[in-house]
Amino acid sequence: MSLKKIFIILIILLIIVIGILVAYNFWGKDKTAENGEENGLPSSQTDQTDLQKIKPISQEPVLSPTIDGQKVKYYSVANGNVYQSKLDGAELTRISPNVLPNLIKALWSYNKDKVIAIFDDQGQAKKYFYDYQTGVSTPLNLNLRWLAWAPEQNRIAYQYYDSQTQDNNISIANPDGSNWTNVFQTRMKDLIVEWPNSGQISIRTKPSGLAQSVVYTINLADGSFQKILNETYGLTALWSPLADKILFSETDNQGKNLKLKIADLNESAISELNLATLPEKCVWSQDNRTIFCAVPKTISQTAIWPDDYYKGLVTTADDFWRINLETGEASQIFESLEEQANAYNAQELLLPAQENYLLFINQKDGYLYTLKL
Predict the structure, then answer these.
(1) pLDDT tens, residue by residue, 44-61
(2) What average pLDDT does the chain have?
(3) Could you give the C-alpha distances from 56 to 70, 82, 301, 371, 372, in angstroms and in order?
(4) Which of 103, 188, 254, 358 is buried most deeply by CB count within 10 Å?
(5) What's the rounded Cα separation, in Å, for the pair 284 and 370?
(6) Cα-Cα-Cα-Cα dihedral of 265, 268, 273, 279, to 10°?
(7) Confidence (pTM)
(8) Within 13 Å and on the Cβ side, how many CA atoms surround 243?
(9) Is the separation of the CB atoms in 350 and 369 below 8 Å?
(10) Segments in the chain forming alpha helices (H)
């Protein structure tokens, strides 16, 4: 065979190979994408699709976010300015330019037009009532400890403790501290005070995996006092919207073996959920039977829960789940990646009435994030 014929044959074979490669790139890959791999899409495309559901909506670390209708409000950690945006982060606007140095936390009223602002003043917590409608700020008594807003009314509940006189009461008052009434005397100190419904106040001792805590309620109509949850290690709690259920955590006496449980007060029943997390990483739906939770992929077996988590000694990479407490059905709505840059340690979860977004602060960077549901 002549060299000319061999050269022609090689050219023809090269053309055939190029044709096959072109056909694969323009037809084969499209077909693979159309059919998907295993779970519908190649893993890289699935991850990208999931990542598009979640994004930061603040431009800086934030404090005390709250949902007001179809918008979210929050404070800037840097200067205390107040910002507002839509739930997807659109239309970001600064609504208060007031500079509030050393702001620790802001407790929003039910209608979101008033706050109790807490500041760090050389290690001492100072509290102020601020009315955004009138622009008036009122300092509160230094003996007012843990505070909680009443549901659907402008009243607050708090522990009043005077170290000089040893006065130690659970009280209610107007948010500026006026027109106060003592509703219960106690010898317990450093209580967490909550107001789960209009007729009762809840008090509980601070949680620790090395000490037992309890939950009590005070009936505002007759002043009666009732233990709701018995002595439990690692006990921290989240009341349901109708205040007939409590989501709570439990550990052993070494702060290990973290569990998440639900107490149904009407049925006097306690059941354990299959997902281990803290109630602070959950939020209730308004239907009173569904919760949304950020669930760590792994629970540190060396940490003391919740103590070390509060101290920032342990962090988590959270997946996000929806749990129906009546049926026990749990469905994952977002899977966080193990890589540090794409893992979320979610706190202060917020759920609007429409349940179209889940908002949270990511402890890793302090930014406010939104997850489209």
Answers:
(1) 333 445 556 899 999 999
(2) 88
(3) 17, 17, 30, 9, 12
(4) 358
(5) 17
(6) 30
(7) 0.84
(8) 17
(9) no
(10) 3-23, 29-35, 43-51, 307-310
